[in-house]
């Protein structure tokens, strides 16, 4: 693979929510980079903080601590005006195609809103640009005067993609863009995202809860557990040689299409439930379910380190 | 039968064709109107309300009688061609007085609803939008005000103000806006966490755009429904206060004062009680039925 420069650098990012007197550490100290033009997959069980991470990186939530650098520039230190300009670089595609489009606005206005906010086009040019964006995501440009409820889930997700593309961003957080869709249209939307990436040189952070889909589209994959990253590697490497016991367990749950291999394979079944993020276990957060847990795992939190070149993990097995 | 590869043939799907949309394009409010029109009861109520408003405006203007001229020679007359609803104990025309009463009732109803809307929307909107401490303090203040009974407020206001329509409206709205504020706050709180609001923020939308393009248009349904149910409550309260002598005072006609006067003479001159009482009941019913119909039309999922 060619050497790519870094587009996004996340440094010790934290996002805690206050819930009553408790603190919920939804995102707890993430550090990683995303290279220009790559797709970084992020996987983890529901509630592990994937959406919160994506939203905090885009500064839709103010971080509790840490910073994000976009092309070397600190996003969190920008003032109001600079942030507005920065928003043209970074966009998001949302999880729920029903909740992510304003039901009182026409599709044209939903896509055109970005043009209005940044003064990118008005009048006839605005209309042409909206139609161009609709065509780009394979929707009928004549449908710009219709309302979101008239479209199917897949079509709505395309509208959401067109909206994100309207500002010509460089980086898009795709927050489980296909989880809510029928299996039959999932592939269409993924293919569209890939085509757009190729055509426009986009960089994606692709969030999903299931490893098999992420493998297909990601260059590198990060695995999250209870607000922390536990492993990050090239997707080939991660699938061939997962280091972290949690990744190993996730991978072993994916069926392999070859029945010979499938039968002989050993499956790691995780014990117990995911602990509450309000009150995570001491030391390694995964220790209550880890088949390889050792005494020191409950005492000391494992550090995030580069175990092999380009392969990061946080586990005492690799100290 | 043995299936071989040749039995299967890929079907080409024309994407454009597949994305054809059959339903006519309707905006939210056009859709509400379509559903409302199908509801016969609500439409009948709406027509009644519109007629009531029109009559309350025009009948007192064009009638040959007025509400205050007394005629002791022709007192307590039963309904006739000259006095459709009869006359009262001072010989005043009950028909015209009923329509004057309608004016007062509607004035109080609409004014109270409008003031509730304005205060409730600003108060609830700010609390819901900013959340956190601001929300907590504002809603705590609302809770405290809510605990004061309006009857007490009316009596206290009577001490410092003249008895009349304005006093009633103030008394009603001092605590009345709280219901609206709670509705608006709940709506905004729920809406602002939705992904389309996050999407607008990620595009760089400022607070003004968020509030006026995204939050209010989506909260408008429940707001209007609440509003339509505030009107009959206010009308009833005005009638009640006037009935017990805390409302408008003579010679002004209100359905409440007319009922009170009519009640005293119910045995001998029943029309003097019957007409104002009938108007109160039917008007309340119409507003409530219309409000219910509107609620169903705005949010069909709420229908029981
Ligand atoms: N605005 C918020 N206020 C309080 N807690 C929140 C908020 N948003 C998320 N959380 C909590 O933070 C944790 C992480 O949530 P998040 O939505 O980031 O998870 P996720 O990995 O995206 O899950 P999913 O796969 O279900 O989307 C959850 O426990 C959630 O309840
Ligand atoms: S640190 Fe210990 S408990 Fe955590 S994953 Fe590694 S071995 Fe398991
Ligand atoms: Mg999520």
Automatic annotation (TrEMBL), chain B:
The chain crosses the membrane at residues 41-62, 108-129, 141-159, 165-184, 219-248, 268-291. It holds the Pfam family OppC_N. It is found in: Cell membrane. It is a multi-pass membrane protein. It comes from the Bacteria. Residues 102-291 form the ABC transmembrane type-1 domain. GO terms for cellular component: plasma membrane. InterPro entries: BP-dependent_transpt_permease, MetI-like, MetI-like_sf, OppC_N. Keywords: Cell membrane, Membrane, Transmembrane, Transmembrane helix, Transport. The keyword Transferase does not apply. GO terms for biological process: transmembrane transport. PROSITE patterns: ABC_TM1. Belongs to the binding-protein-dependent transport system permease family. PANTHER family: OLIGOPEPTIDE TRANSPORT SYSTEM PERMEASE PROTEIN APPC (PTHR43386), OLIGOPEPTIDE TRANSPORT SYSTEM PERMEASE PROTEIN OPPC (PTHR43386:SF22). This is ABC transporter permease. It comes from Brevibacillus thermoruber.
